[in-house]
Amino acid sequence: MKPLVIAGKTFHSRLFTGTGKFSSNALMADAIAHSGSELVTVALKRVDLDTPHDDLLDHLNLPGVNLLPNTSGVRTAKEAVFAAQMAREALHTNWVKLEIHPDARYLMPDPVETLKATEELVKQGFVVMPYIHADPVLCKRLEEAGAAVVMPLGAPIGSNSGLITREFLRIIIEQSNIPVVVDAGIGRPSHAADAMEMGADAVLVNTAIAAAANPVAMAEAFKMAVESGRRAYEAGLPGISNKAHATSPLTAFLD
Amino acid sequence: MKPLVIAGKTFHSRLFTGTGKFSSNALMADAIAHSGSELVTVALKRVDLDTPHDDLLDHLNLPGVNLLPNTSGVRTAKEAVFAAQMAREALHTNWVKLEIHPDARYLMPDPVETLKATEELVKQGFVVMPYIHADPVLCKRLEEAGAAVVMPLGAPIGSNSGLITREFLRIIIEQSNIPVVVDAGIGRPSHAADAMEMGADAVLVNTAIAAAANPVAMAEAFKMAVESGRRAYEAGLPGISNKAHATSPLTAFLD
Amino acid sequence: MKPLVIAGKTFHSRLFTGTGKFSSNALMADAIAHSGSELVTVALKRVDLDTPHDDLLDHLNLPGVNLLPNTSGVRTAKEAVFAAQMAREALHTNWVKLEIHPDARYLMPDPVETLKATEELVKQGFVVMPYIHADPVLCKRLEEAGAAVVMPLGAPIGSNSGLITREFLRIIIEQSNIPVVVDAGIGRPSHAADAMEMGADAVLVNTAIAAAANPVAMAEAFKMAVESGRRAYEAGLPGISNKAHATSPLTAFLD
Amino acid sequence: MKPLVIAGKTFHSRLFTGTGKFSSNALMADAIAHSGSELVTVALKRVDLDTPHDDLLDHLNLPGVNLLPNTSGVRTAKEAVFAAQMAREALHTNWVKLEIHPDARYLMPDPVETLKATEELVKQGFVVMPYIHADPVLCKRLEEAGAAVVMPLGAPIGSNSGLITREFLRIIIEQSNIPVVVDAGIGRPSHAADAMEMGADAVLVNTAIAAAANPVAMAEAFKMAVESGRRAYEAGLPGISNKAHATSPLTAFLD
């Protein structure tokens, strides 16, 4: 399996995980270890910055695991930049997962504020990984703005619906010059394999592992699924042609 | 059927149509007449502005039909504003369908330039109808910017795939205070009925009518489908619950 | 719209309806009248055979409406034949909708008993309309056995899921020499239009009308949707190619 | 991972494979070895029964691999029984994969002849594994007839479409007392994982491996996907509820 490189750092696992919703920090650490994940998101708001030994961070002190602070909870570019700066100081990393979602009900990302924050954070030397709608043009603009990867959603967060944005992910993957990490909506290992088979560079999975009856076993299942999907992609998949391409001439916009 | 009001104008038909891809202007006029459509998009670039009697426009001089110039072909907000101004002068209307698609291959709309152009055109007194990705947050921002409607896509333009953005359209319809017009991807009357059943306020259909073996009969079929879907919506649909809502607590973003 | 002929009888409506689940017989009659349906299923078990003026039947005494007794509730071919004979005597019709479903939970039809009953009922002079799984080979065998139509299911009964058996319906429609009536799963007018666009000869709708907040308006919506879908089919649909055909050589079974 | 038992034989791999469509027998053997498969179908018609050392069979002489002759090419129960008898003699096994498909174009299985052949072959002491449509009632009847497993199709053979019969597979899995092996339509590892996550006991994959650019790597990918899906199933999947159940009361058949 070809390793994945983001901002000069090499990853041997293409499964990124999260730290929310586990029933205990010990269980979280155990599941992450079994997932093989080398990049783990953590919400700044969940870290106690005033304590020398925060329990969450102590549990994440695992060999090979890099922390990816996220800006969860912010509603504007300005708030996001501030959160990223705080995270850099607290966690000693210039990597940031950018999440800006003004709407508390569906937690959909804001395309305009996300682009604005990306531009600013790149200027400030951050490695920016923006979570966004599966919008092909926005992905290109984030790439131009210096984002390290794009993280389009597969389905509404928490829906476990799989890749309902499939046709758009396909376009994004085809057009992107930076890694594409599918985030949100991945509820089962088969969804993760599906994304990898399509040519996604990595996936981010949190709830589906954390909320499983047995998170450790589920972490292993996801690990295998991601490797399986990647291997299949590299082995050359026969079969399902790109239906979005097949049916349409697309030579000119309609009027 | 409840009439639809956009910018103070009342529409009795919820089927908007286009003028591209017909084999002749006469056939186009016949199909539009049978569709019952009262709002018809026309690409500014296809109108000969120097001719006193442009053939396309002459054929669109139908009772009850309003023209909706579109900015098809532009790549930036600036170009879009210029195109809208030209259209206003040439076609004597301050309505404009805003289409900004920098990528010639998939014709996906640009969220950032579209918002910027909307803000500017609203200031200049236009009735702005932006064509966009099915992005719930972007729709809210366009609403706040003064757009008259939002026109999210159902599927990639020309794909005839139906409402593959269904889960996002649902959220958009639920949250919007301005009419939602589903544009692009509607390839069959059932797709149009589907959108109306979900609570969309109108649909825009072009290729599926223009490229049919019998465009006039197809126009009638779409007319009936839109009325059927709207009637069903008003009659109260039992059945398929909103699956996006059902499966997830969505109380907090994950980390 | 081309009329539909079944066993020598001509139908101008391609929407068949049912009589179950309405809140009153008066409302049922009103909805059926507005649906334009000329063929209406009625469960033998719901008719009071000992009463000269059964209330249900009195309400179904509508101009142009033909009754189609069904064998709902039977579990074997033998029971089905008996039920059909009773229905013929009670309702003075040799038409019968054959439903054999041994499982009370999902009400899935039994392919073997249905074929056996069809063979016997055809011998006894019945016009047999069997409700079955969307199984292409079974459909051919029923045709060979003398069934007047085949009625494959679109989705599990009561699921309102639309045409989840789409790929199989496509094959059935392509191969059938007798009318194909899609039954079960049609929950919204768009589903009915969808079936007609694919080339189904008719659809049967019951719950979706009966359980609507406004059954009369919903009946009208379905009437329009069926006509719309049929018109589109006759007008020649561009677009979505038969994906089942496209991806596979299918020259030989695998081993 | 819980082992799978069929007719008293224990399998540690839940991935069954086939022997068709490989570019050479050597490549086939290599791919099967890497798949970990312990049960491999072989078409009787492809074996040269008159040769002491058939090349295909020689290559299948792998440690841990059991042969599963299939009746591919037969059109009736009678032909199937004869083919099974020949296979038993030639390959020294009483296991048989029953495939009866009268239609050469879509290779859909015949439900009635398959049930008839199963009854006869069980009487004759065969371990019968019938390939069938995803028809829940037929599956129960095959179980009652003594089939060792049921092998419902996920999609038309060769379509690589994944589990388009999903809702019916779910019912079959829920109701079956014998192992359920999903056959046909599995075109990518994610499809195999999907089936296992739903609770299928095994999957059969042939073309997707044989026709891959790199069949050995693809075999490994499928091996991992099947293990991943099974592990996830055993770990307890949160999330997607059974939609077929959710939307409908299903208390009584409609009329």
From TrEMBL, chains A, B, C, D:
One of its GO terms (biological process) is thiamine diphosphate biosynthetic process. It catalyses: [ThiS sulfur-carrier protein]-C-terminal-Gly-aminoethanethioate + 2-iminoacetate + 1-deoxy-D-xylulose 5-phosphate = [ThiS sulfur-carrier protein]-C-terminal Gly-Gly + 2-[(2R,5Z)-2-carboxy-4-methylthiazol-5(2H)-ylidene]ethyl phosphate + 2 H2O + H(+). Keywords: Cytoplasm, Schiff base, Thiamine biosynthesis, Transferase. Residues 6-249 form the Thiazole synthase ThiG domain. It comes from the Bacteria. One of its GO terms (molecular function) is thiazole synthase activity. Its EC number is 2.8.1.10. 1-deoxy-D-xylulose 5-phosphate binds at residues 158, 184-185, 206-207. The active site is at residue 97. It is found in: Cytoplasm. The keyword Amino-acid biosynthesis does not apply. The keyword rRNA-binding does not apply. Homotetramer. Forms heterodimers with either ThiH or ThiS. Catalyzes the rearrangement of 1-deoxy-D-xylulose 5-phosphate (DXP) to produce the thiazole phosphate moiety of thiamine. Sulfur is provided by the thiocarboxylate moiety of the carrier protein ThiS. In vitro, sulfur can be provided by H(2)S. This is Thiazole synthase. It comes from Breznakibacter xylanolyticus. The gene is thiG.
